[in-house]
Amino acid sequence: QGNEAEVAAFSVPSYACQRRTTLENHNTVLTDALSLLAENAELSEEDGRGVAFRRAAAVLKALPKPVASMTQLRGLPCLGEHSLRVIKDILENGASSEVESTKQSERYKALKVLTGIFGVGARTADRWIRDGIHNLRQLQDSGPTLNRAQQAGLEHYDDLNQPVSKSDADAIGEVVEKAVVSVLPGAHMTLIGGFRRGKLTGHDVDFLITHPEEGREVGLMPKLVSWLESQGFLLYQKTTRNSYLESKDGPARPASNMDRFERCFSIFKLTKEEKRGTKHPETLTENGTKPAGHKPWRAVRVDLVVSPISQFAFALLGWTGSKLFERELRRWAGHEKSMSLSSHALYDNRQSKYLRATSEEEIFAHLGLEFVPPSERNA
Ligand code: DGT
Ligand code: MG
Description:
Strand content: 5-15%
Bound molecules: 2'-deoxyguanosine-5'-triphosphate, magnesium ion
Helix content: 40-55%
Strand order of the largest sheet: 2-4-7-6-5
Structural class: alpha+beta
Number of strands: 10
Mean pLDDT: 91
């Protein structure tokens, strides 16, 4: 008796970047449900709804204990009517009917399978579904034209949908590090993305590369890619040029979050030997012949980003994630501080000037936020 009243209400600040969110999540049942609805909204190109569910899930991830009753949620930020209904359903019935029916819907299943192909986004998947393509078999049979990325994505579908372990990430890191120092001595490389936040698995491996002398990083990416390609490490790659300086005339406010770094999206060939940390034997590349069944390597999505040292702290902060944490940092900067934050710079609209920073700590300080280390950015 009186149990409900005894359960203290939780309290968390509004912005995810004001909170410390470790990987320890006491409410996975609730956050998985809300994340699924977020994903479904994103796959249906309803980004507003997607963000609302992501924010709600992030609030629950930050709670110190499992939610036991709805009354504990009173006064928490970012929990809209829809999210509260889902939570209530789960607390009372053990599951949310909306989540269960979404999970089982043909449309959701098809969107998942098709966007599971590297290079296929929500829009393409939707078009294919309207053409009656719901799975990989139908895709191969009815044969819409695939671009180079999608062809590679389809070819390595199973591998790319397997989680990447931290040890795989480290093995790839050793290869990339070796490539980096051999094409540009003095350059250095940092593991970013989810693995920097302490995640044990990821969907890809992300690296940020810079050189302590401004300008020395120019032209690094093509050399790095050539080195990796010549050693047979890349199954696919697409490099995008750095257009930041080119577009820097006009008003100083960065126009979008789209990245203008030299960036390479790749599919990396990780061999058993690399996994064990031994030398790469030249003989392992089998040309043209597809190994039946067991093969001595796996494909892994790897993203490489090159940044000039002057932007390094912003790139590091911008590429460590989580995606929601990044979004919340930018929202905080804009709404609370009248600043514009990107992976390149921080602009103060009131002072009409860029604020320099050489570390993540300085950026948090500019933003008037307590420093949150990477392991606590898992919002
Ligand atoms: P994962 O790989 O699924 O385990 O999780 P994350 O957190 O590594 O996510 P990922 O790899 O998609 O992206 C790494 C971080 O980099 C992400 O938290 C936000 C950032 N990021 C990703 N794509 C872009 C982009 O196009 N521009 C910018 N500025 N940042 C990006
Ligand atoms: Mg990642």
